[in-house]
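Let us practice reading a record.
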Amino acid sequence: MYDTKDYVNDYDETVIANVLNEHANAANRYFHTNIVGFLNLVTEGRHYSAFGSLRLSDHFNRPGIIEKGNNLDDLTRGLAYQPQSNTDEYFDKEITQFFFRRGRPLGSDLRAIDIQRDRDHGLASYNDYREYCGLQRAKTFDDFGDLIPLSDIQKLSLLYASPDDVELTVGGSLERHVSGSLVGPTFQCIITRQFQQTRIGDRYWFETGDPKIAFTLEQLNELRKSSISRLLCDNGDNIQNMQRFGFIRISEL
């Protein structure tokens, strides 16, 4: 986003604003690692509600509980207040052992589903995307050492016959993060390209100055004042307070 009060005219008619397969089915799904296995319901005073914490696998495709009392507002506050899981190669057991269990003792494994999705969509290998993103193509598993810890490389060498067999969703999730980022270089490359082409390939991007479709500058700068915190407050029944930056936790219960 540009820090400006003027229009932004960076539309490029040669860019197709489609969703990249490798973004939708690998890079973006890496953030399943942030899912926590419980949902806190939090009151306006930032205390646990009578429902406390809900086990995630008890409520997949069963949203009825948010129709009771103030639970929708309490869930909204809780989602803004509780921490996410660390962004790494580990995933909560609620989605690796109990995903969509629907009352059964065990469920599916979302991580396994993510890997299979790579194959179903015919994505190229992690090694191919390394090369596409300007990184060195690995000829041996040891060549992954520029981005992946040795302990993880050893596991890959036991599970795969060749560096070219490693799926994008697996290899990308093991990379050391770029400084200031939540992902490694390969996923960063894919995500950056996706967001760039989504923006500059959209003729109707809201910041355009095209006189046929543009907002007035007054309207545009009102839109720029919007925030996730404002959105949460506006869509709750009685949410009176929210931290200014809705994606940043301010303290613990």
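A brief commentary: The mean pLDDT is 95.
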